[in-house]
Amino acid sequence: MEIRHFRYFLAVARQRNFTRAAEQLGIAPPTLSRQIQDMETELGARLFIRQQREVGLTEAGAALLTEAEATVRQFEFAQRNAQRAGRGEIGHIEMGYVASAVYCGLLQRQMQAFTQAFPDISVNVRECAMATLTAAVADGRCDIGYIRSPMTLPDGVEAVRLDSEGFVLALPQDSWLLGLKAIHCEHLQNETFILPEQISGTLHVAAQGGFAPRLGPQPGGLVAVVALVSLGQGVAVVPASMVGHVSLPGVVYRPVQGNDATSWLSLIHRRFEKAPAVVRYIQRVKIGV
Predict the structure, then answer these.
(1) Domain spanning 3-87: which CATH class is it, in words?
(2) What's the pTM value of the predicted model, to 2 decimals?
(3) What angle do CA 189, 195, 196 make, to 5 degrees?
(4) Residues 73-100: tens digit of each pLDDT
């Protein structure tokens, strides 16, 4: 038997008449009658008591009715879900992000807009170290990720460029640099630099100041970087969005005069992504760029 046989059976059971059921189904009454007879032959039981004007259910037919209704409902539900999944309306996304995507508010805005538009797509979000996040997207452990660029990406992974911003200097509150009216790149040549995961800002400041930076620890996330600054371990060149979002005792943020370095957030994804829900998210982000 096929799912159509259950639909034929239900139509007759509801209409209690072969002619009316055939009209509802859009088939000829003799065809419907043969299909029901085929069901009865396969089941080895009569399903209907045939009378001149109406038909009634036999005991076997009554037993089949509830199960047939549930089977058709489940089939239609599965069919609709498959169609919706194919259109990218339902599904699941594994997403990773670096902390600065949250500090600047970009991740919140894009996530909120997406989940409002597609409430049946579940998104599992977790903070990741940037180096491991790019690898996780490449090997499929994450579907998409928010990183801070510029950064070299693995083969098969590409980036959508998003918001850009400049850098500021995070200083211990007792730093001699705070006594200057303006801090220039060359003033930093004797400082120890605490390194965030994205080191391009540090390297750019050093290049503009004409010195090789004295490199300190690279503790990972930006909060860990600023925490070491607060403990007097050095200074750090961090994204400007940190100001007003990450405030630790003993840390002061200052601009560096003449420093024109920028970084930007990127959405990274596999180049030939095929999962409809993931493709839908990428498309939505690109539209908003």
Answers:
(1) mainly alpha
(2) 0.69
(3) 140
(4) 888 888 877 777 777 778 899 999 988 8
